Amino acid sequence: MQIAFLLNGQTIRLTLDDPHVTTLNWLRDNGHVGSKEGCAEGDCGACTAVMAEVVDGQIQLSPVNTCIQLISRLNGCALITVEGLSQDSIHPIQQAVVDEHGSQCGYCTPGVVMALYYGLNAQPPQNREQACDLLAGNLCRCTGYQGLLRVAMDLPKIARDRLEPLVEALAALHAPTPEEHPTTLNQALALRAQWPDAQVVAGNTDVGLWVTKRHQRFERVLMLHRIPELQQIHLDNGQLVIGAMVTYTQALATLTQHWPSVDRYLKRIGSVQVRSAGTLGGNLANGSPIGDMPPMLIALQAQIELQSVRGTRHLPLEQFFIQYGVQDLADDELLVRIHVPMESRSLAMAKLSKRADQDISAVSLGLSARVENGCLLDPVIAFGGMAGTPKRARHLEQALNNCPLDRVDWQVLAQDFEPLSDARASAEYRMRAAQGMVKRACQQLLGQPIEVLV
Amino acid sequence: MSQDPIHQPIAHDSAVGHVTGSARYVDDEPLPAHTLHLAPVLSTCAHGELGARDYSGALAMPGVVAVYDVDRIPGRNDVSPVAGDDPLFADQRVEYAGQLIAVVAAHSRVIAQQAAQRVRIETRPLPAIVTLEQAMAQSSFIQAPYQMEAGQPDQALSDAPHRLSGTLDIGGQDHFYLEGQAALAMPNNEGDLRILSSTQHPSEVQHAVARVLGWAQHRVDVHVRRLGGGFGGKETQGNGVAAACALVASDLGCPVKWVLDRDDDMRMTGKRHDFKIQYQVGFDAAGRIHALDMTQHVRCGYSMDLSSAIADRAMFHADNAYHIENMRVRSLRYKTHTVSATAFRGFGGPQGMMGIERVIQAIAHELRLDPVDVRLRNLYPQAPPQRTHYGMAVQDAVTEPLIHDLMEACDYRKRRAEIQAHNATQPTIRRGIALTPVKFGISFTTTHLNQAGALVHIYQDGSVQVNHGGIEMGQGLYTKISQLAASVLGLELSSIRVTQTQTDKVPNTSATAASSGADMNGMAVVRACETLRERLMSFVAQHWSCDLEQLSWERGQVRGPDQVWSFGELIQQAYLNRISLSAVGFYATPDIHWDREQAQGRPFYYFAYGAAVTEVSVDTLTGENRIDRVDILHDCGRSLNPAIDLGQIEGGYIQGLGWLTTEELVWSEQGTLMTHAPSTYKVPCARDTPAIFNAQLWAPGQNRELTVRRSKAVGEPPLMLAMSAFYALEDAITQDTYPALNAPATAERLLNAL
Lengths: 454, 754
Hints:
The complex is a heterodimer.
Chain A: E1 2-7, E2 10-15, H1 23-29, E3 48-55, E4 58-65, E5 78-80, H2 92-99, H3 109-122, H4 128-135, H5 146-153, H6 165-171, H7 185-194, E6 199-201, H8 207-212, E7 221-223, E8 233-236, E9 239-243, H9 248-258, H10 263-267, H11 272-277, H12 280-285, H13 293-299, E10 303-308, E11 311-316, H14 317-320, E12 321-323, E13 326-327, E14 334-341, E15 346-352, E16 363-372, E17 375-384, E18 391-392, H15 394-400, H16 413-416, H17 427-445
Parallel strand pairs in A: 1-5, 6-7
Antiparallel strand pairs in A: 1-2, 3-4, 3-5, 8-9, 9-14, 10-11, 10-14, 12-13, 15-16, 16-17, 17-18
Helix pairs in contact in A: 4-5
Chain B: H1 15-20, E1 36-42, E2 48-54, H2 56-59, E3 64-68, E4 93-94, E5 100-106, H3 109-116, E6 120-125, H4 132-137, E7 146-150, H5 153-159, E8 162-170, E9 182-187, E10 193-197, H6 202-213, E11 220-224, H7 239-252, E12 256-259, H8 262-268, E13 274-283, E14 289-299, H9 307-316, E15 326-334, H10 349-367, H11 371-378, E16 386-387, E17 393-394, H12 399-410, H13 412-424, E18 429-442, E19 451-458, E20 464-468, H14 477-489, E21 496-498, E22 501-502, H15 517-544, E23 552-554, E24 557-559, E25 564-565, H16 567-576, E26 582-588, E27 593-595, E28 600-602, E29 606-619, E30 625-634, H17 642-660, E31 692-697, H18 723-733, H19 747-753
Parallel strand pairs in B: 1-12, 10-11, 14-15, 20-21, 30-31
Antiparallel strand pairs in B: 1-5, 2-4, 2-6, 3-5, 7-15, 8-13, 9-10, 9-12, 11-22, 13-14, 16-17, 18-29, 19-20, 19-26, 23-24, 24-25, 27-28, 29-30
Helix pairs in contact in B: 6-7, 9-10, 10-11, 14-15
């Protein structure tokens, strides 16, 4: 596979024999050792760099966990690593970290600096909350973050970088078009039929770990990131239609516009790095029982659209998950769109995890209902983490329907689920906390004043 | 010339290197040609007999060069620090899941990792002791029990007006240094080895490598510039990584590198000891403790490592800041088929302190007193000095004034009253507050380790190179060393270059541990610089034919009755007159002694003190919680560098917070570690830090002992300030019955305790 990209302004052209090479391994093997490997699974952020792409004529930035992002994903893009920030003189962000004593051992620091660089040029934090969001994907074991948070909160005082010249530079790159990177849905479907053994890659936030941790090797990869049709999000006939390749970051604004309560829930998914890469379609097609989107989308009674060269079918999302590890997806099919009805239901979300930010859910909950006379009507309650698949709590839905909260028997949830014990939570805790989560979500929908701590 | 750099908030000497990515760690070094890379083959079984080892699948892979196991060791199969019981490679049996059985050497790390997956190891499982409870039930001791005692605990217990007993379980902690363990071994022109290692203890790596190879120690040089975090996890745990590289490098005659993958690192390397603490306490109606009988059960894992000294330190800190006249501490040390627990910031001290703080909380609850009042009534007094349960007079107790300053600064009493009023309304979100002090003993309790060396060179252009035995792992040691050298020689910081630490420059070093780095290496560097200064002054006096008393040395200039030399002129003249411009410095901490047999002595040169107040919220529906505010006063004596010390305080508190809240190590029943990656093992991230974070050095701080510039060590003590967060969480969920929360206080434990 031939690829071309800009690394800190310099053109790199590569012929890749091995599709599994990660960006971080390529960088470090080629002497760019500023980016560090802390975990090789996208959880610590020490390898963070910033990727720039041209979208609709504008530069769009993404912070990248380079440890799990394949180098081939950079084709046609610009990558800015920590080395790129101080080519002439030290960048104001770097100086600010020095001035605030923001580094101790320094190993996480290049990644932190790059997360800050992304924040500066994409969306400078306006308060501590947003500063915490920006840094959630960067673990620091030494400093306790206080100096780094001060720098993050002061980003609005620093002048943004001039990135416009990248538009021209990327156009001049004339990046190749590898066969594995189809640019239309029809191409992708044809390849999916032609290469049934190919690993489909969406955001690569999970597949990346199969490469770095399980050392899995694929016959081929089929990467879907260059298909504009799958990156649209629009309203159509009373439905919100979300392309499967829309990232969390891209979906955030639209989803919170329609369902304001999901803002914090969405920001607790991964980190800015993970949310800039991870896609809604990938989260569903992956089939994980602890994915964060299924409870929300099941609660909203979403349908998914599956396509193959044979045709198109639609399916209520909850029917997609057959059992643990088994989804209703044929070998030649792709999950292409999510259709969310926009009826007047209220939505509340909750996520339970050991750590507030950048943690995988022990339990996740989506609850939607119509609110009338202090009661919830036709509630839909969907849980992740309570069974082998994302699943509705039918008994509790029935118990809750049109029932004042003080008369609800929350214990019926035990008829819906027999959760497992694992490193994240015990079965007993999952069951008890899930009841608390539903109760709190109901109170939220009913407009009762409640404080949510995380 | 600028002012004396000592006591100034000077930035870390590598700060610019950190932020630009140009500060190099072992993994960043450009590799010599033909470097091979290693990947480990680990036991998946906690206890078993090793059977057939089939390497054919790995060896058949293109790029794989060799596989090394116990059969390939020319010297001794031992990389242990003390007891001779840590094999480099498992021999005949495995004793924990994650134990190293073999390493695969290949032309790239990725190939080595893939090949390691193709190795087939047969293991016949044996019964495994995994938990502390199992070890206790089977009396699976790794070392003889040990005891410290003062007064008449039994008598005083039975005479006390009130008695309580209880138990506290405390979980372990993974270091989660961001840089995994790493080593690069390079054969030199004589076939000897130069090793770059991410160790806190280069001399021990040198010894371990020499032992495994069957070599004299003078054939091995170990070099360390900086670590990406250590926290005790790189005190002994890097020995095997370096020894494996050395073994392959010496055998094949090529450079060999091994950087541990995060999951391998977490499975293979030791963690903080988990403890079970049982106590019986006798006290009066005012909450004054009359007698305490405490037993500390310690899970040491499969081998000794440093467990003896760690368990001892837990006993030394069983009193924390409280004078308890009649006291007995028993320590029972258990062998389990889990990874060998090792040093971790605080070195047993944190667990010891958690025990007595639990006792205080329980007494306060029993008597319905503010726990702060129970604390204040039991503190070591400023005067007259009282003796600890191991016979050391506490001469420098400042906890009482420090706590009073803290309570006033953070309005403790008023806030506590408001929190109690809030909780009385039976709200969904309950709040809690707690104040805990820290008194932490400074010195290695193994007395002979309290020594350090330095080597200082002045070159002909007047630039100074400083070498010492300490390791820079983020704590700012090199910065403080630079400040001290610049201060003694009266030079700008830019004239001082602190170079990487090398066993061939300063030999026979102790680990950079026990918070001792700046205290000991700083003093050794000061002495070397003073030697040079005195030597140069004598030369000048002779050269100018005047008395020493007529000379002054100020800001790098020598001034005599008739003339002045700049430092550059001085060095030129000294060189031309054949004066040595190089000196060693040596320091051994004075006045300390420890009789382990009698459990009496003065193991510590002095104590470091601090206190913290933490306020929290807990959701009673789910156990989810938030640390809302912390106020800290910490005594660094006369801080060598207030900015760096504040960083240690803030970072130590947050690391301790992780230990006591979200960082939960989970083992399967079979003894496999389930939490071996950041996806399941959760260290604090930015949002977990309290929105209100007031940390300050305690302004009146002084060290009554003659430490370097009257400073106090600061590496470990602040970690224990986080006990206030744990007991604040406990406070939030406390109602009529005492919840006796175990650590870590995960949301799950909090909900279960409600």
